[in-house]
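Saturday, quiet lab. Running sequence design on the structure tokens for the scaffold JK sent over.
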């Protein structure tokens, strides 16, 4: 092939690629949003709380795009705090300055200032979310980011859903989130959220004004398929989510829908999103029922990482009497199944079942405290005895606190979250 023919072939390939790019661009769009970050007063649990939120919403507005689109979000900061927004899961190829990491990819947006994020969503189909990336403000500054396939719902590896519903698992914090962050930097993990939320709704936890507060409700019709896009936006909690009497076909990420496993419930961890596909035809109930109301509730009993107090009771099987022995307060270590502790085995006695381990103060989750020395006490549930031991360092990492499994014939534990 002579040079003239070679140049002609190269030009043809170039124009072909250019034409393909122009065709792709013709189908793409620019999705624009304006986020106003401010403090608003919201009332939950019979109490008014000052909340930092976007556009006065909790959760914030949903960003819905199609693969190949461009996104432009103007953030106007009317809050008293510095702020950045991170687009969790978006592949910022050659565009790291839109990633929202403060003091690394950008300076924080100061109060009274604004900043516009611009990025493309190319080669992704996903259930994602956006959130604040300063302090602990992501607990209230967050929302869904949905990237749908360019080919439409027909490309899903399941029947075309009748409806797609984003469901944001969150937390309601009455404690100031900036104070929570400050305490975390000093190793104090004593703060817990006041309640869990689904799409910002707490449900009927308290009757404050004569009418119970609504939980999240989804109206469904038998025989139709619903795509539920779950996102756990909780700050530090994980939850199990299930719909009573139903089965999910769930997908860890829309981007990896090549394999899937039917499950009835699945764990949702902080910064975790997953997408189940569900059809009410799998309901076990009245076959004549044509439609139903679906109420989603978090299965708190499956995982109780936020227990704030543990009380020990003595159980007398013969008389069926339960007598309270003592309240051990917040400074308690729960030892249970399917968990491991980050301990140096040569430095510690073996942690035994049917024992409660408690510290001498509320700073249980502190590393490097008092020259790495901690005093802990042991409460034996078998004979109600106690002893005090001193350890060089209780934690080398912060594991998640879990349940203690007592001897049910002798003891019972009650918790107060």
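Result came back. Writing it out in full:
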């Amino acid at each position: 092939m002579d040079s003239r023919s070679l140049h002609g072939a190269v030009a043809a390939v170039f124009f072909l690629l250019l034409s393909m790019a122009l065709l792709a661009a013709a189908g793409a769009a620019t999705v624009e949003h304006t986020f106003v970050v401010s403090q608003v007063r919201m009332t939950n649990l019979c109490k008014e709380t000052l909340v930092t939120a976007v556009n006065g919403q909790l959760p914030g507005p949903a960003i819905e795009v199609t693969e190949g689109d461009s996104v432009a979000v103007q953030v106007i900061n009317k809050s008293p705090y510095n702020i950045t927004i991170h687009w969790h899961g978006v592949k910022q190829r050659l565009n790291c300055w839109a990633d929202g990491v403060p003091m690394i990819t950008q300076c924080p947006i100061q109060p009274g200032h604004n900043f516009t994020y611009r990025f493309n969503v190319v080669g992704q189909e996903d259930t994602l979310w956006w959130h604040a990336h300063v302090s602990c403000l992501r607990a209230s500054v967050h929302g869904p980011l949905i990237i749908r396939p360019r080919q439409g719902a027909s490309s899903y590896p399941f029947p075309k859903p009748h409806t797609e519903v984003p469901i944001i698992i969150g937390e309601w914090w009455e404690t100031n989130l900036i104070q929570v962050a400050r305490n975390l930097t000093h190793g104090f993990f004593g703060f817990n959220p006041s309640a869990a939320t689904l799409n910002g709704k707490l449900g009927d936890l308290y009757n404050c004004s004569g009418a119970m507060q609504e939980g999240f409700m989804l109206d469904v019709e038998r025989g139709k398929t619903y795509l539920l896009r779950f996102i756990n936006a909780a700050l530090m909690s994980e939850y199990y989510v299930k719909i009573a009497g139903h089965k999910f076909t769930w997908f860890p990420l829309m981007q990896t829908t090549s394999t899937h496993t039917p499950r009835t419930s699945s764990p949702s961890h902080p910064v975790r999103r997953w997408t189940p596909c569900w059809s009410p035809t799998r309901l076990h109930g009245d076959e004549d029922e044509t439609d139903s109301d679906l109420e989603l509730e978090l299965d708190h009993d499956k995982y109780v990482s936020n227990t704030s107090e543990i009380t020990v009771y003595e159980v007398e099987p013969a008389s069926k009497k339960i007598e309270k022995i003592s309240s051990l307060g917040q400074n308690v270590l729960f030892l249970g199944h399917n968990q491991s502790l980050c301990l140096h085995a040569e430095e510690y006695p073996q942690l035994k079942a049917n024992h409660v381990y408690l510290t001498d103060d509320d700073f249980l989750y502190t590393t490097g405290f008092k020259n790495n020395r901690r005093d802990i006490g042991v409460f034996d549930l078998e004979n109600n005895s106690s002893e005090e031991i001193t350890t060089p360092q209780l934690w080398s990492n912060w594991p998640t606190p879990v349940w203690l499994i007592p001897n049910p014939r002798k003891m019972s534990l009650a918790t107060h979250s």
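Notes for JK: The first helix runs from residue 3 to 27. Residues 254-315, 325-417 have pLDDT under 50 and may be disordered. Ask whether to fix the surface positions before the next round.
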